[in-house]
Structures are given as C-alpha cells and as structure tokens.
Amino acid sequence: MARRAQPISVGLWVGAAAAALILMLTLGTLGAVMHRAGSFSGFGPADWAAIRFTLLQASLSALISVALAIPVARALARRQFPGRGLLITLLGAPFILPVIVAILGLLAVFGRNGLLNIALSWAGIEPVSIYGLQGVLVAHVFFNLPLATRLILQGWLSIPSERFRLAASLNFRADDVNRLLGRPMLRAVVPGALVVIFVICMTSFAVALTLGGGPRSTTVELAIYQAFRFDFDLGHAALLSVVQFGLSALAAVLAAWIAVPGFSGAGLDRPVLRWDARRGWLRALDALWIGLAALFLLLPLGMVVGQGVASLFSLPPQVFGAALRSVLVAVGSACLMLALALPLSVAAVRAGRLFEVIGTLAIAASPLVIGTGLFILLRPVADPVALALPVTALVNAVMSLPFALRALLPALREVEATYGHLADSLGMRGWARLRLLLVPRLRRPIGFSMGLAAALSMGDLGVIALFADPSQATLPLQLYRLMGSYRLDQAAGAALLLLGLSLALFWLFDRGGRVNADA
Amino acid sequence: MLTLEGLVYRSDDFSLSADFAVPPGARVAVIGPSGSGKSTLLDMIAGFLAPVQGRVLWQGNDLTRMPPGDRPISLLFQDNNLFPHLTVAQNVGLGLRPDLRLSADQRAAVGAALARVGLAGYEARKPAALSGGQRSRVALARVLLRARPLMLLDEPFAALGPALRAEMLMLVRELADETGATVLMVTHDPRDARALGDQTVLVAGGLAHPPQPTEALFNDPPPALRAYLG
Question: Among A296, A368, B53, B162, which residue's beta carbon has the most beta carbons within 10 A?
Fold first, then answer.
C-alpha cells in the first residue's frame, strides 16, 4: 500500500469509537462477568457434559450438513430444470428465517404428532422423538444444509467452463469429472464450509433451548441461560461464560486458520454446461437428491404456513403487542448496525484490517455472555429489565455486524478506489463525504445489510430471553411461550406472523436500497 | 512557481526522482513510457502519494504534508471525474463547497461556469445522460470555478476521439489563459503534448527530467524518448 499524505481524519476517530464499543460489548462484558463473579463456583460433571455436547453437536451438524450438501450441490450444478433459480434463491432464505419458526415447522414434521410419526405409526413402527441430540442436529442441518450447498455450488461454478469442455473432448465420464475436477474443488471449499457451520452451531441457543435441554443435551449457551435465569448463580454463569468464550476463541482461530469462503451468491443461477452426466440413472439420482433436499427444506415451512393461516386472525392481543415491539427492535437494531458498520468500514479501508477483525469478532461472540455482562454492568445504574428492548437491539446489531461488513467492505473499497481521489482533491471529508459520496454509492449494500440485520433481530431469541419479563416479550419470545403452554394453533399463527414480518422487513430495506439507485 | 525539491518516491523495486521548477503560467506536457512514473509524479504533486524524501513547494510554501483538497490544485483524471449519482450542477458545485451548501451567488456562479463551457441549461442532468465530451466539459467547468493556480491533468480525454480531444485541449488552454493557471498534463501522445504548448517533462529511467521546450525535444529526441516514440 502506498503511504498517504493525509492526516488522521475524523472518520477514523468515529471508526475507533465504534471499534471500542464493540470491544467493550464482546470483551468488556466478559470482564464484567468475571469480576462480578469473584470466584468461580462449582465446575461439575454437568458442565463437562455441556462442553462435550456443544462440541459434539457442532461437529456433527457441520459434518452432516456438508456431507449432504455435496451430492445436492453436484446435482444442482449439472442440471437445469424449471424452478431451479427459485430453489437456489430459497437456499439463501434460512439465513433470514427466524429460528423459532423453523423449529415449529420441524416439530410439525418430525415432532410427536408430526407427519413422520403419523407415517411410522401406519407402518406399525414405534414413534421417534425429536428432542435431544437428534432434534438439535435436524434443526442445525435444516439451517446449514442450504448454506453448505450454496458454498459448494459456488465452488462448482468457479471452475472455468473450458475445463468441462476439455473433459468432454477427452470423453470423461461423470466419475472422471468428479475425481479430476470436483475433488480438488471440494478439497478447497469443504474445510471452510465445515468451519463456518461449526462456528455457527457452537453459539446456537434457540435450537438447544427448544429441542435440547436436560442433562444429556444442554449446550454451554443453554447452561449459561439456566444458571442465570433459573438459579441466578452469577458465579456459575460467569464460569460458563469463560468456557463459552474459550470455545468461541478456539472456533475463531480455526476460522482464521482455514480460509473461510465468502458467500457472494452472485450468478449462482447459471448452470454448468456438462456433457458427462447424461445417463438416465444419473439423472434419476440427481433428481432424487434435489427432490429430497427441497422436501426437507420446504415441507416444514409449508406446515407453518398451512397451520398458521387458520389462526392468524384469532390471535390473542398480546401477540400483536409483541409483534410491534419486535418490529421496533428490529428497525432500531438495523439502524444501530449501520451506525457501527459504516465508520468501521471507513476505518478498515483507511487504516487497515484491524478494524475489520474487530467487526468480525462478533461471529464468535456469544450473545448470552454479552447479555449477562450487560445485565451486571447496567444493574447499578439502571433497571436492566426496563432496558431489555434497547439492549436486545444493540446486541443484535453487533451480532449482525460480521455479515454487514461482508456486504459493505468490498463495495466501499470499490467506491474509494474509483472516486476516492476525486473526493480527496475536492476536499470532501467527514460528513460531506459520507452524505454526498459513500451513502449514495453504497445504497444497495446498505439496504441489503440493514434488511439482514432487521430480519436477524426480528427472529432473535437470545438476549431477550435473559432479560424480558412477560410484559415486554418480543414476538419470538411470545411464540416460545405459546409453544411452552402447548397452545400450538396460536403458536402457528404467531409463527406465520413472525415469518411474514421478517421477510417483509428484509424485503423493504433491500428494496429501499435498489429503487432509483443510479448506475 | 511550482518547485519539486529533491523529490524521491520509492516502492518495492520502483523509484522516481524529480528535481526541477515550473515557472508560473507554463503549459507542461508530461510524457514517457508506460510504467515510468508519469502518474506517480502527478500523484506526489497532488498529495495522493507521499514522497520518501524531498519537498513540493508552491510559491515557496511547502505543500508536502498538506491534504490533497487543501492544495492550490485542480485535478482532472482519466475518467471518474464526475459522481454519477449527483447532477451536473452538484458536480460542479462541489468545486466551491465540498458539502454542497451553496449560496444563491454560488449557484449563479455554477450556472455561469457551465455556460462558459457550452453547457448552459444542463444543470439538472445526471452524468449518465451526457456524452463523453459533455462530461469532460462539466469537469472543466468545475476546474474553472475552483480557479486554483495549478491544474494537473492525468491523461484526460483519453476516451475521446481525436477531434474531440483537440477541442478539449483547446478549451483547457483557453481556461488556463483566463485564470492564469499553470498546467501539467500527463499524456502518451506527442500530438497532445504539441497541442498543449510550450514545455515537456520526459519521465524515463526513474527520473523526471526538467521541462524542455516541446518542439526542440521532439525534433531531437534523447535515446529514451526515441525508444518510446519508435
């Protein structure tokens, strides 16, 4: 990089302030928990079991998701069929799908009275239970199979088309192509995909809360929640927070060590032209994989929609109050995210990768640890319960930062490379540069990342579960309560409302970034 | 007077030195093989690159540590001289105030500058609705409005055809005459150097040579220039 002849700008100071806030939220809260705890209390066999279970479920979730994604991605890469583009778009949807909605859908398929057990009872087979390890795995695969599929599909599409032409001219058969072109690509893509999914599943809370639990399937995150919420044993919660932080740090090191692929998603609807896979049984096999994957992903959502429509108009009033609170939290969270992400990106482009690393820290941070720390920090000065909603918005904003930075940073780099010198020469600095150059040029990634942040916050069931009392539940928490009291028809209606609101928020923000955007 | 005092830039295995002065009001072409450092020279003067040693002076004032926007310099790049999301008037107005909070007088000045380059009535258009030549004119209107005493042009008008390019160079000369500005223009085309006027700086072999009379230089080119001209 060439040295610049400019002094440190205002933007850099704002970026440093944002970075400091993020460090305070991620590391400072951990310090607060440790300090408040004084001494660590009782690290028992249950805690060891939680650590074992956390690592086991995250490893298995990553392995199963990627193992299933390999044939699905291969089939999607070499087949063209009506609805292919739509299916690939849907593979991106679980990312903004509220976890609790998906769980309700999975319960409708795999639960005690779900479709699977109905089918099994017809066949005279004992019913299976979705609770425990298998349930956690089903839910994690539901969320991460699409991600893994997209990553591997991207790998297939990154192979130059000349290679496939060469393969065809050399009369390669399908397994030759897989061996000579597919396998080297998989060796490059699969480790990154495994790490991403492992990291995501390490801090998974809502899935463990609803489908796990009990001594044999409690994650560390869930144990923090229980220590905090049920026992109010801060010493124990602090100890577990340190453990969770250690696990997350391990995951972060893994992620830094293995090149984690970015998910651009651009141009994925272009199929690879193939000449080697025309035989009938290969077609049937590919159709089977695509069909099974589509069924696994669409059936639970279809069940939510189907069951929810009936009760959507007879929902209790507190559901609508919760929905309003959720929308406010989500919009607030999206704005907070942008207020952090823009200065961080500006600072990262001007002053180097440290800012990017700090912004990405949250991918390994635990919302439960942050929440516990904030509770301890806030309690002497304010009522944490009264601040439950702002705190939720802030923590959600920090959690969505890594994804926002992935969208914003490359775009900002391009704007600075193209127009930076012009703006410098005209003396456009600070606010004027932000208002007249960066925001107008970055409208699309800003809209997209705000939509992402709003949808993630809308569906979040994490910090809010720690703090809130019944009078200020968000929609996911209200939905969780309805499920807990077995009012499943109302839960389905609330789930449909939550799903609709999440998608609508994402769509509105994303659309806002696109309309009237000049080329 | 622009003075480059023992200026040296170095990065990896590339280096460029310059040690000369340009008299006020001069029209100087900067020519040389690609990769020789023509743009590096301009970037150091403009403040986008910091020299490892030496100073850049204007009328005896040291500019070396000054941010680009504070230097007495107007710039014209090869492309991207206009922000595509701003109107023609906004793009020109940025030359007066980088935050675009313009007074009525300043808005009138924008209109007058546009009229001077032949674009009266184009205020509300976006750059996408202009031809390449018109876009260059908008950028020149901004240069005119800024009225900074030093104009740096880095291969401007490269995307334009020969006739349009000659027309733009003529406009540059006229504007420089009106404002009394000193002009430095990077080009790879000897015809542009001749069209601009009196002096030429040859950049070759890691050195920016002092300006020499253009005609004399091209009539009896030194070996480095002869190799470049072919």
Answer: A368
Mean pLDDT confidence for A24-30:
85
Domain count, chain A: 2
- Note whether B24 contacts A: Cβ–Cβ < 8 A: no
How far is B21 from B38, CA to CA, in rounded Å? 16
B65/A contact by beta carbon, under 8 A:
yes
Structural domain of A93 = 62-302
Is A126 within a domain?
yes
Report the CATH number at residue A113. Answer: 1.10.3720.10
What pLDDT does residue A242 have?
83
Residue A273 has pLDDT above 70, yes or no: no
How far B222 CA lies from chain A's nearest CA (Å)?
A: 31
Of how many residues is chain B composed?
A: 230
**Nearest one of A318, A308, A303 to A493, comparing CA atoms:** A308
pLDDT band at A348 (very low <50, low <70, confident <90, very high): confident
C-beta separation of A455 from A506 below 8 A = yes
Query: Are residues A255 and A331 located together in one domain of the fold?
Result: no
For residue A421, list chain B residues with Cβ-Cβ distance below 8 A: 46, 48, 68, 75, 77
Nearest C-alpha neighbor of A500 from the set A240, A296, A304, A287: A304
Same domain, A320 and A248: no
pLDDT in tens, B181-202: 999 999 988 888 988 878 999 9
Q: Are residues A287 and A328 in the same domain?
A: no
Does the residue A83 lie in any domain? yes
Domain-located, residue A102:
yes
Contacting residues for B129 by C-beta, under 8 A, at least 6 apart = none
- Say what the pLDDT of residue A2 is: 39
